[in-house]
Amino acid sequence: MRTLGLDVGTKTIGVALSDELGWTAQGLVTLKRSEDDLQSDIKSVSELVQEHEVTAIVVGLPKNMNGTIGPSGEMCQAFAKQLENEIEGIQVKLWDERLTTVAAERMLITADVSRKKRKQVIDKMAAVLILQGYLDHK
Questions:
Q1: Any idea where the YqgF/RNase H-like domain is (predicted)?
Q2: Which of 3, 41, 89, 99 has the greatest count of CB atoms below 10 A from its CB?
Q3: Cα 85 to chain center, whole Å?
């Protein structure tokens, strides 16, 4: 029973995967978003679901610091809804992701990862933090 964690942005989707017991999250991949082709993005996620025998997806929901949902949050809600409609038998949950990208950036800076490398892995790392937060809560 694996869970996929997604950090959905306008240009990329960071992806993390839980272990089979649902205890830990590991970074999997960063997908490039297809311009104006949501179906291609859904297909890419669907392939990962099948390949890794995923039973649930956690999509990070970026909220404003006051708890309201802005344009990015609305885009993530729509993406989650589309995933749920397109991928049969999968549970899709939204998870508050406030400051996960900031936390991921700090972790990478502390680890002395170069700016160029950070840019390549930041979304995947944010997805790990989203998924791990969900797994810990569960």
A1: 1-104
A2: 3
A3: 18
Residue 75 corresponds to which tokens in the numbers above?
């885009």
Q: Is 112 helix (H, G, I), strand (E, B) or coil?
A: coil
Six token digits for residue 109: 């800076």
DSSP string, 31-98: EEPPTT-HHHHHHHHHHHHHHTTEEEEEEEE-B-TTS-B-HHHHHHHHHHHHHHHHSTT-EEEEEE-T
Q: Identify the CATH number of the domain in which residue 44 sits.
A: 3.30.420.140
Question: What is the DSSP secondary structure assignment for residue 87, as one 8-state letter?
Answer: S
User: 58 falls in which pLDDT band (50, 70, 90)?
Assistant: very high
Q: How long, in residues, is the chain?
A: 138
Sheet holding 54-61, edge to edge: 25-32, 12-18, 2-8, 54-61, 91-96
Domain count for the chain, please give it.
1
Instruction: Identify the pLDDT of residue 137.
Output: 85
| pLDDT single digits (tens) 65-117 | 787 888 888 999 999 999 999 998 899 999 988 667 666 667 767 776 676 66
